[in-house]
Amino acid sequence: MVIKNKTINKWRKSMGARVGRSATGNMLNLILLATVGCFMVLPLVYTICNAFKPMDELFRFPPKIFVMNPTLTNFSDLGLLLGESWVPFPRYLFNTVFITVVGLGGHIICASMAAYALEKRKFPGRDLFFKIIVSTLMFTPAVTQIPNFIIMKHLGWVDSLMSVIVPAFGAPIGLYLMKQFMSGIPDSLLEAAKIDGASEWYILWKIVMPNLKPAWLTLSMFTIQSLWNATGGVYIFSEQKKTLSYAMSQITAGGVARAGAGAAVGVIMLIVPITVFILSQSNILETMASSGMKE
Description:
MetI-like fold, Carbohydrate ABC transporter permease, transport, MetI-like_sf, membrane, MetI-like
C-alpha cells in the first residue's frame, strides 16, 4: 500500500509538472471547456424543457430552447393515458427493471469469466477465438435478429423475458472491454496468489475484479442504457410481458394530440440512464486516478 501511494504521488507530481500553465492559459482553457460543455448539455436541456411546454410552445416555429410558460399538463396527460391501459403501469416497470438487473448481472459475470480465461490462460485457438469476438462487434442488432429468433424458438423462449435477458449475457462488447482492461493486471500478482493457495475463483472475484472497477462500471453504463430501452418487440408478444419502453413508444405514436405526453415520455426514459451515467462517471474517474496497477 505504501509503494502504491508513493507511485500515485509521483505520477501526480509528474502530471502536474507536465501540464503546468500560466493563469491566463488556465482561464482560456476553462472558458473553452465551459463553452464545449454548454453545447454538449444543450440537447438534454431542450428535452427537459419540452416536457414542461404547453402545446402552443411545442409547435412554435422557430422552436425555443427554454420554456416560457411551464406547465405539468404533459405529465398529467401521460398519467391519464397510462391509467387507461388494461395492463397496469407497474407491470411494465417491473418487466423493464427485471430485464435490466438480471441482464446486467449476467453480462458482467459471463464477460469477466470469459475475459479471464482468454487473457490469463493459454490454450489452443485463443487468439483465433478473440479475433472472432472482435469481428462480431461490426454486426448491428438488426443483422442478428433472425438467427437469434430461430435460437429462441428452439429453446422455447419466444414470448418470454428470457429472450431479451439471455442474449445480453453474450454481448461481445463486454468481453472485449473486460479483456482489454484485464491485460493491465500483472501476471506476477496472480502467480503470487496461487503460491499462497488461492483458487481460480478467489483470484478472479477477490483480486482481479476489484482492480477492474473502471471496466465493469463502464460496461454497466452501456448495458443499462441498452436494456432499459429494450422493447422486446421481436420476441415478446404478450402485453403483460411488454417493457416500459414499448408502452411509452405506443403513447408517442399517437400523433399530434399526444405530443405533450410524448415530450414527458422522453424525460422519464432519460432519468435512469442519466442517473447511472453521472454516478458511474464519478466512480470511474476516481478509480482510474487512484487504483491503477503497474508491473
